[in-house]
Design a protein that fits this description.
The chain is an alpha/beta fold. It has a domain of about 140 residues. The chain contains eight helices and nine strands. Helix 6 packs parallel to helix 8.
């Protein structure tokens, strides 16, 4: 089995996974369910050294997570790319209207439609990790845009354009190439999940998390270090250290 750094991002239909053993080309594949992750990696001859996912893990009963506020502050002008995580009671909502009511009761503010659309994915991650307790979580939380911004700053690059633009996607792919992750050929290959095309920005997000997962501990910062939710799940987020 070859050790690989793993990055996971939500996509339409499921999850997109980047697995990278430095010195090789990264592998991109999709999953309908996270429960298939370990078996799929093993079938590819890979064993994870670290697995990072762009999805909240620890969930408060009320109020915002301190780590979300810390990450927003770290992103500055790009802070809107980080949503305030819905408190755990919102996961029980059956529809957007109920989620709004629960969010106002537990968070003190309503929930955006974009945040509501993430709830099924948050619920899936929470279910996956709670089934594995009391073992330490096999997934750690990270945020692709924060990773990209800090890695780019470390390379002395100009501010990155929006990842939704062709210019922004190209800049992020070039950054990964410059950092030693050869992704150009991988990104030209079509990728679908449950019959739906996986967007380029989702693939890039998974790839940057795989790169982040490959870094030594000394190159990483853990935002929200020590915070856990009432069920013992960490409310922390891994990011590259800020360039000196």
């Amino acid at each position: 089995m070859t050790p690989a750094a793993v990055g996971i991002d939500g996509c339409s239909g499921g999850w997109v996974v980047a697995a990278w053993a430095p010195g090789t080309a990264p592998k991109l594949f999709t999953l309908e369910r996270l429960e298939a992750l370990a078996g799929t990696l093993a079938a590819k001859g890979l064993k994870p050294r670290r697995q990072l996912i762009d999805m909240p893990i620890g969930l408060p009963l009320a109020g915002p997570r301190p780590v979300d506020l810390q990450a927003q502050a770290a992103l500055g002008a790009a802070r809107a790319s980080i949503f305030i995580t819905p408190p755990r009671p919102v996961l029980d909502a059956l529809n957007f209207e109920e989620a709004q009511r629960l969010a106002r009761e537990t968070l003190g503010q309503g929930l955006s439609l974009q945040a509501w659309n993430l709830v099924p994915k948050i619920r899936a991650v929470d279910r996956f990790l709670r089934r594995a307790q009391p073992a330490p979580p096999s997934l750690e939380e990270a945020h692709p845009e924060l990773a990209f911004q800090r890695l780019n700053a470390g390379q002395g690059g100009a501010p990155l354009p929006s990842k939704k633009t062709a210019e922004g996607a190209a800049a992020r792919a070039a950054l990964l190439e410059a950092l030693g992750l050869p992704c150009a050929a991988t990104l030209t290959q079509p990728l679908t999940c449950e019959g739906r095309r996986v967007a380029l920005d989702d693939r890039l997000d998974a790839l940057v998390l795989a790169y982040l997962a490959s870094l030594p501990e000394r190159a990483l910062e853990r935002l929200g270090s020590g915070d856990v939710d009432p069920l013992g799940l960490p409310m922390t987020l891994l990011a590259p250290k800020t360039p000196a």
